[in-house]
Structure formats: structure tokens, C-alpha cells
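Newbie here. four chains, one complex. Structure please?
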Amino acid sequence: MDDLETRELRYFVAVAEELHFGRAADRLGIAQPALSRAIRQLEHRLGVQLLDRDRRGAALTDAGRVLLREAGAALDAVAAAARRTRRAGDEKRPLMLVTKAGASHELLQRLLVAHASAPDAAPVEVVLCEVGEQARFLRDGRADVAIMHRPYDDLAGFDTEDLYVEGQVALLPAGHPLAARDQLTLAEVRDVPGLPIARWPQLDGTYPDGPGPEVHTQSQLAQLVALGKTLLVIPASSRAWQWPDHVAVPVVDAPEVTTVIAWPPSGYSPAVASLVRSAAGLHRVAPTS
Amino acid sequence: MDDLETRELRYFVAVAEELHFGRAADRLGIAQPALSRAIRQLEHRLGVQLLDRDRRGAALTDAGRVLLREAGAALDAVAAAARRTRRAGDEKRPLMLVTKAGASHELLQRLLVAHASAPDAAPVEVVLCEVGEQARFLRDGRADVAIMHRPYDDLAGFDTEDLYVEGQVALLPAGHPLAARDQLTLAEVRDVPGLPIARWPQLDGTYPDGPGPEVHTQSQLAQLVALGKTLLVIPASSRAWQWPDHVAVPVVDAPEVTTVIAWPPSGYSPAVASLVRSAAGLHRVAPTS
DNA sequence: ACTTGCTGATGCCCTTCAGGTATCAGCAAG
DNA sequence: CTTGCTGATACCTGAAGGGCATCAGCAAGT
């Protein structure tokens, strides 16, 4: 059977994301005719039409949508193979741990301290990423292990260990009427006049509908809240990055958030095992806040 | 960054498995010099030595072992992308369900019947594979969903739903002294003179040490047990394939076996969801035996 | 209706590089 | 010192990926 080459997958992903051969070719650094031919050949080899060409661009067929998803996963796996192999060559390579910037500060702190005193401690390097990007880092080999949050993050396909369960708080600009309350409900937080809830990327990378601003970094958020443009509901421990002009109020009926440590099952190594063991030792210890 | 091509990964896997450039080249249908050059180039691009060449063949380095594992996963992902995309083109494509030949007969039977009467039932095609191969089928796209057994099968990276929990029985040749007992313990079953326990492939594909024969199909096993060459401990429901000259005796302290339905998180589709829902409806119903 | 300005598709040429054949080079065992 | 393995080199060839120029369809101005 004729196997696909990663080049073909990269080409298709570019076109599927741009929905435009010219721009995709540009992004890939090749000429448009070459791209058109490559995609045609790919369609022919798979025996399936992937794109509906149209006067004003291209649109994905059902099969195209399947391939977009699968190709992404496959390319991540290939990238992971390269990265992990390169790193296997280094002696004294540190373990890469990825987490959302600004989340779970203190838990992470304690984890690193605890692990440093473990007998078989390997050095750990912390990588910060944007919201929802941890899974990507694990999948493509940029990280060996991640700190993630259920139910917000995509844990599919990873082994995990629960570390900590906590409630959520609403983060409001100081001076807002609701900021004086000592607790809130989700119903009260929704539809606050002039204070729409910020919209985060969902598991599939799209944004939910709504009036609030689209954000994907903590600093954007902090800014927007301070400016009185939005409010948000976040895990209680995240108020570590709270600004002076922010006020956190517990939201009593918000779903609980579980902080977990996650790793790709294929990438299980003694170093990862050791770190996970250190993490398990932190179980249920409330963070100082 | 220079991405790897699947061709290079296939070449490396062949060499890593054969540990011999000539044989690997033969298997790939290319000449040995081309292979040598491809591997050298791969090593150079990764900046890591993958193989220790030696007068009598090649041996994997640590990095090589990492790449062997990662490349396998990556190639499976690429193959899955191709297969799932092709199948997405077919209308009326059946759902592919894979299970070990001979295991969980009746549960599967009931699942298929239950699902056939579901309102959104898609046709289901059953594929049988050898012991421990289900994960491979799910990973490379040959199957959409699998019936597997914890703790025997490798469930890492899949979403699962528990279907059924059962104890295990020892399968003995009729006429053996232990066959008259109405229950046994693991301690009694181990080290039965002249009846070593058969050795199954472990999660990593290697065989545990021991005196018993290496087997990987049910029919091999059935034969060996009937011949009085081995005994084995298996889930109670597997005695469906028991021969007339087999006797099953419960092993009271053997770990429980959970039959689960598993699917790759990436491959989640309405059809899979529907089948899983049907399966969940079977919960805890004891099979007739 | 004609033009304009987008889109992706074609035709033709060139360069690159994967792969084949022949041969070399190291080394262990006769 | 020869023989018979191994993998590595040298050199050539050919398929195919890629670039450039151009074509072809279609919608929206004018």
C-alpha cells in the first residue's frame, strides 16, 4: 500500500486551514501550482475528494474534515518522534513540564520543591504556554508532562493523576457592585449588564458564541478585567495572578476544577514516573492562598 | 525545521527490527546502499546516533530505542489518517469493531443485538485479531472501536467504558488431578509439575520468562491444553471456546478481569458514540454461560 | 455586455535526490 | 592469507517535486 508522506499531510493541513491555495502555498514557501498538483495527487491516492474547489476558494468535504483532524494528530506524532529522539541523545536532559501561564502557581512550586528532594530527582524545566495548548505540547513532544485542569483541558489520550480539587471564583474589577458580595451564583454572574464573560477557546479550538471578548492569554484577561471590560470565572488558586484592582468572589455553584498531572502514555519513562510519584505525594494538601 | 518523512521512519523501523541492513533493505524492497545512506542521513538530521554498527550487524542505541517506539506510533497515526479518510468517503461505511478471537463471545453477541435495535444503529463489522493486537488496530485506523480486557490489554491512550467484571478460571486438561477440584488458588496453579503456565505476550510485545510455551492465538492454546502441555488462567467467560477435554476450575484469588469497550479519543464519531451507548446499556448483566 | 480581478488548473522545463550497480573496506573465522 | 560476512563509498540514472508563465472559470463592477 502506498503510504502517505508527511509532506503531503503538511500541504493538506495548510490548505485546509487557509481554505485558499495561494495563501497556503505562500505559507509553505512553495508556488501555488505545485500545491494544487500535490493536493490533487493526494486526493487521487486516497480515492476521496478532500476539497470542494470554488471560484472564491476551497471548502472541506466530510472526508477533508476527517483528514484535517487525523493529519494533525499524525504530524504531531512525527514531530514528537523527532523531538524525543533528539532529546534522548542528550545526557542530563531535563524533564519538560508545561503548564498554563499563571495557573496553579503554588501547587507547581510545591511539586518542584518536593521533587527536588526525591532520591532520583531529574532536573525539571518549566515551559509556559497559552490556555489550552498543553495537550499540543505533550502530543508533539515539546513537553514530557503537563499540569492541566479538568474539565477545561483536553485530557483525551493521556494518562493522568489527580492532584487537587477546588472551587471557582469570579474575578471582578474592584468597585463593581458585585465585588462587595461574599459569594455569587453562576446565574448572577451570567448576563451582568456591561460585563460579559470572556470567551476562552474550547477543546476544539473554536470560541463559543457570546458577547464577551475572545481571549487566550492570562495577561489579556487581567488587563480586560482591570479595565472593567469583562469578568471571568476561574479556579480559586488562579487568583495568584490577581491584580490589585481585581476582586475575587467565590461562585458557589460553579463546577469544581481538578488540577491534574498528565503525560502521554507512550512517553512514560523513569523520569516521568518519578515526577508523578512526587506529585502524588502532594495529594489533597490545600495550597496556601 | 526539517521534518521527518514517513519513508525515513519506515526505513528506520525496518532496520531497528531486523538489526541488519541487508535484510531490512530486502524487506523494504530497496537495495542496501540506499538504506545505509537513508539511515545515515536520518542520524545526521536528528543529530543523534541511532545504531551502533558492528561487523555482525547493528545494535540500537538508547536514542534508537526511543525512535523505534515513537516512529511506530507516528506511522500508525499516519496509516490511521489515510484509512479513516478513505472510509469517510464511503457512504454507509460500517463501524469496525475488533476483538480477540474467542473472547467475550456472548457479551459481544448481546451488544450487537442491542445495538441493532438502537434507533441510530450503524452497521457493525466485527474483526478478529490475535491476543494483544486490538490496540494496534485502533491506533492505525483498521478499527474504530475494540472490546478489550483490563488488566491484560494495553488501554493507554484510549477512552474506555467498563462493560463487565468477572473472575478467572484455570483451564486444565481433563483427567489432570487438579481438574477434580472445585476451586484453586494462584499459588496452587503456579508450578504444577509438568504443566507450566503458557506465556502470553506482554504489553510491550515481549514474552515473560518461564518454562511454559510462548503462544499468541487461542487455537494454539486450546491445542496445547488438550495435549496436556500447559495450563492457563483466563477470564471465566472465555471458557466459551473450551474443548470437550478441557476442564475449567475457578481461581479464587486471581485478579478480576474487566471487559471494556475502547476507542481512540480522536476517532470519536456519532457512530462510535451510539455503539458505546448501546454497550453501556449492557452494564453488569451477567452473561449466560 | 464587456472588463476586471479574483480564484484554481495546465503545460513545460529544470533541478533535486532517492535508488540502483559495482566496488571498497573492516573484521573474524577458518 | 584467504574467505565470507558485514556496512560504506562512488558514480550514474531517472522519476518527480517544484518554479514560471499562462490558461480557464466565474462574479462583480461599470
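Moderator note: The two ends of chain B are 59 Å apart (CA to CA). Residues 7, 30-31, 33-35, 37-38, 55-56 of chain B lie near DNA strand C (CB under 10 Å from a C1'). Thread marked as resolved.
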